[in-house]
Fold tRNA modification GTPase MnmE.
Amino acid sequence: MRETIAAIATGMGSGIGIIRISGEEAFSVIDKIFVPKKSKKKMSEVKSHTIHYGNIVFNNEIVDEVLVMVMAAPNTYTKEDTIEINCHGGSFVMKKVLEAVLKSGARPAEPGEFTKRAFLNGRIDLSQAEAVIDIINSKNKYALKNSINLLNGKLSEQIGNLRAEIIHNVAFIEAALDDPEHISLDNFGDKLENYVDKWVKTAEKLLITVDNGKLFTQGINTVILGKPNAGKSSILNILSGRERAIVTDIEGTTRDIIEEQINLNGITLNLIDTAGIRNTEDIVENIGVNKAKATAEDADLIMYVVDSSRKLDENDYEILKLIKNNKAVVLLNKSDLEPVITVDKMKELTNNRVFLVSAKENTGLEELTDYIVDMFTEGKIDFNDEVYISNERDKAALDNALESLRLVKRSINEGMPEDFYTIDLLNAYEELGKIIGESVEDDLVNEIFSKFCMGK
């Protein structure tokens, strides 16, 4: 933590590149290599949070013409002295500027080390730190909004309030047990039970958000099933907006899994096109059919594409078995041709919503997209002050805290001594602390930040 670190903080090939330096020697490092054009002051002497124009000079050669931003501790991202060099964005020039920085006293930053220092220096807690990488990885507006809420401390505030109330009650019990003559625990169990009920409701409310949280961050795994030539690949191409899959009149063209990610009214769909399901003697095609069936078992949503101009056969009835216990929609495709299967017939067979579509004429899919969004969100997405849990680590900690709180309630109802309450209350306090990083092992912290990209 006492070493000064540096890294490229922007992607290669952008118009502007940023080299970030943080640590006690940040100003000393920049003073060795930066020559301002309009001032003779060193960067260690200028006003904080100012920008200065000049050249990076190393080994008596100008490396690049740059802008240098100077930010003094503690009002920086890491709460340390920080320098950001804005240079040209070519990969070669950025590497040369970074090389000059490293040879002037800094060392290469580890992945996520800037954010790790922000956490260790107390500027942000662990849930906020993890929100940084969630923002970077956001694939839709809901994931981005939720990550921003987390970064702004919405979850931290709720967890902090819970822990404060829990530890207050633990302290009261301990004080009363140490000084029973002056502090009474008469009827305290009833008062504590009211608190516990409130804490349980808060934890349960957060846990209810887990499914939507995963939906926003990971997307809906959507498998497209159907017989050969039903129009599955055409549907994939239309939804993705590009020729992602080969489309021909030859049955069995698609033999392997084809994946595409699309943004559907703010929600991410992980579309998976599969081999047409039929009985076949072709060894390769049969492998694809078996893979399609296995993929369908783990799907969040199945799109069953039916050729409305062809009668149902044994292959269709095989697919009907696959979708029986899954969330599914039926796309009655080729509605531009003379139909032999009706919407009512498919509703009767599948008990699912049926959409009359034409991949050829690109009709009927707009209503489908609206329905899928409503199916998974139930029209109840509200981001005023809501936060959604998408992190498995947070979910596990909440589950454990909830179990401990329920044990406290059981102890109260069974008339156990008050010192029994404190054991489970402290367990709940500890588990909640894992969410914001108040009680986590160093190895876990290192693992979390190792997933960050360099320069963040």
Q: What stands out?
A: The chain is about 45% helix and 20% strand. The radius of gyration is 30 Å. The first strand starts at residue 5 and ends at 8. Confidence is low (pLDDT under 50) at residues 245-256.
